Amino acid sequence: MAARTVAVVLAGGVGERLGAGRPKQLIEVGGRPLLAHAIAAFDAHPGIGEVVVVMAPGHLREAAAIAAPFRRAAAVIEGGATRTASTAAALRALAERPDDDRVLFHDAARPFVDREVIDRVLAALDGGDEAVAVGVPASDTMVVVEDGVVVSMPPRETMTRFQTPQGFRLGTIRKAYESALADPELRATDDCGVVHRYLPEVTIRVVEGSERNFKVTRPLDVVVAEHLASEDPR
Ligand SMILES: Nc1ccn([C@@H]2O[C@H](COP(=O)(O)OP(=O)(O)OP(=O)(O)O)[C@@H](O)[C@H]2O)c(=O)n1
Ligand SMILES: C[C@](O)(CO)[C@H](O)COP(=O)(O)O
């Protein structure tokens, strides 16, 4: 049987930096919640078999109502206290699937992921990559600062900002999380970071992202999101 691909939309956060008084994935831009924009992008992609939503505790009913109209929306499950705990919850929900299936993890807070970006992640997985990230070049000079002083300045041309979706062979991300969850020191801000730390032998391919695929994190991002949604209603 051909490997199947599931998209997991991570919506388990509370949106503290945005400060909207409720999880930011529930706020509307262009007349629909950020979560609906994110689900729609994967629901419309022919390479995606199912979409699983991981939602913040206390908001599962709202998420189920948002997901209901989408044909490929298969489940809404409860997330954990951190992004990695939410990914781990999704992996538990996918426990019956074979290792050769593929999984894409996407932030619900990135409402404008384009079909081309998803295409590139799937193409890399089709080509045999086990872990795939999406990146855009850094525009600013990036430095490492400790205790208020610069300790290193990596050349900007090597600096890439990661976005999502991040795609994996299911067996690979499963194995990485098995080790990660056994580590009391686990700290990671994304799923490729978990593979990089716990399966260093795995090559992480980076494919081109898009400036539109930014993460709604702070109040100014909502202004930009409203503008983009009005320019390109979906
Ligand atoms: N426990 C968590 C934390 C985050 N996320 C998801 O991971 C994505 C990226 O996280 P971030 O932008 O940090 O979202 P929040 O955690 O909601 O924001 P904040 O850190 O400002 O509270 C979001 O779609 C968020 O819902 C998640 O599924 N589970
Ligand atoms: C996964 C991510 O969006 C890649 O840039 C980012 O690391 C999420 O970080 P956050 O702290 O959960 O916003």
UniProtKB/TrEMBL annotation:
It comes from the Bacteria. One of its GO terms (biological process) is isopentenyl diphosphate biosynthetic process, methylerythritol 4-phosphate pathway. Pathway: Isoprenoid biosynthesis; isopentenyl diphosphate biosynthesis via DXP pathway; isopentenyl diphosphate from 1-deoxy-D-xylulose 5-phosphate: step 2/6. HAMAP family: IspD. Catalyzes the formation of 4-diphosphocytidyl-2-C-methyl-D-erythritol from CTP and 2-C-methyl-D-erythritol 4-phosphate (MEP). Pfam families: IspD (PF01128). It catalyses: 2-C-methyl-D-erythritol 4-phosphate + CTP + H(+) = 4-CDP-2-C-methyl-D-erythritol + diphosphate. Belongs to the IspD/TarI cytidylyltransferase family. IspD subfamily. Its EC number is 2.7.7.60. It comes from Actinomadura hallensis. SUPFAM superfamilies: Nucleotide-diphospho-sugar transferases. The record marks 156, 215 as: Positions MEP for the nucleophilic attack. Keywords: Isoprene biosynthesis, Nucleotidyltransferase, Transferase. GO terms for molecular function: 2-C-methyl-D-erythritol 4-phosphate cytidylyltransferase activity. This is 2-C-methyl-D-erythritol 4-phosphate cytidylyltransferase. The record marks 17, 24 as: Transition state stabilizer. It is an enzyme of class 2 (transferase). InterPro entries: IspD, IspD/TarI, IspD/TarI_cytidylyltransf_bact, Nucleotide-diphossugar_trans.
